[in-house]
Amino acid sequence: MSSQLSKMQEWQAYWYLPLVAALGYATSTLFVYSMGPFFEPLQAAFNWSRAQVSMGVSTAALLTSIFCIPLGFLVDRNGPRKVGLAGVLMVCGSYALLGTATGSDSNWIMLWSIIAIAMVATQTTVWTSAVNSRFFASRGMALAVTLSGASVAISIFPVMATYLIGEFGWRNGFTYLGLSWAVIVFPFLFLGFRGANDKKKHEAKSTVNTQDLPGLTFKDGIRSAPMIKLLLGSSFFSFTAVSIVMHFVPILKDSGVAPMEAAGIASLIGVFSIIGRLGTGFLLDRFPGHLVGATAFAIPLIGCVLLLIDPSNPHLIVNRLKCHQ
């Protein structure tokens, strides 16, 4: 039925779905965008280098990437709702456990390995698959709203983390941030997150004939040139972008910016990112995707150059954040 709806009709029927999916997607970025304020307290508490602190995030990212394909099969089989709801609770709970860190490298890696297992169930596939099943005519904008959840996360997680660390210490900061985010997000997901594939098994079997579905088989798709190009492009971009964003607050603090001011400046990334994501979604519904994507991926290079010039200059900071939108 959704394929026969106009753009306006799709939004009238399912306006809430991209919004709640955005909250779910924000959860998948919790461990990245909130870590910046924790670097300095962890280094002081355990006499760690910045590389040792980052080692946990790198471990989680690596392990999560390995299980992305099995996650896709799980979502196709059971629907995104069950996977997403369970994943949000697991991510928030495992993130809260970081407050129990003992200072040993093995303990740190173990805690982040637990996060990695939980993170598998909150990957982008979960949230976008539900949105894709409801939106066809306005899919670009719907996906842009969903992916703006990461922009919201960048805006609020550094500020929340900095405040909680200042008031309750870094251990309670991890605990309170994880648990409070679960309390905020889970009710909305429980009430509003449901894709077209979230049906009972017998209903799904009676209404869907897989032989009639458009597109490539998994075997053909995984070997296709566009798939390989997208995989390489997104991997390289994510590796560099996540590294920059995660270390953004420490970079500003090293340059003499106060902790809360640094968190506030970092949160501007999210503001400009929302503008950029929605603008990209608007363009994707009207222009070839490869042209829009190539342009969007190239713009942050300007921000990286500005970051090398003078990271504490307020004017360059604002210009840099605009480039990262």
Topology:
Elements: H1 7-14, H2 16-28, H3 30-33, H4 39-46, H5 50-66, H6 68-78, H7 80-96, H8 105-119, H9 124-134, H10 139-192, H11 201-207, H12 218-223, H13 225-246, H14 248-254, H15 259-284, H16 289-298, H17 300-309, H18 314-323
Helix pairs in contact: 2-9, 2-10, 5-8, 6-7, 7-8, 7-9, 7-10, 9-10, 10-15, 14-15, 15-16, 15-18, 17-18
The count of strands amounts to 0
How many domains would you count in the coordinates? 1
Helix content: over 70%
Following the backbone from N to C, one meets helices and strands in this order, namely HHHHHHHHHHHHHHHHHH
The number of helical runs is: 18
Using the coordinates above, name the CATH class. Mainly Alpha
CATH architecture: Up-down Bundle
The fold-level CATH name is Growth Hormone, Chain: A
The fourth-level CATH homologous superfamily is: MFS general substrate transporter like domains
Main sheet attributes: strand count, strand direction, barrel closure: none
| Structure class | mainly alpha
Distance between the termini: 35 Å
The fraction of residues in strands falls at under 5%
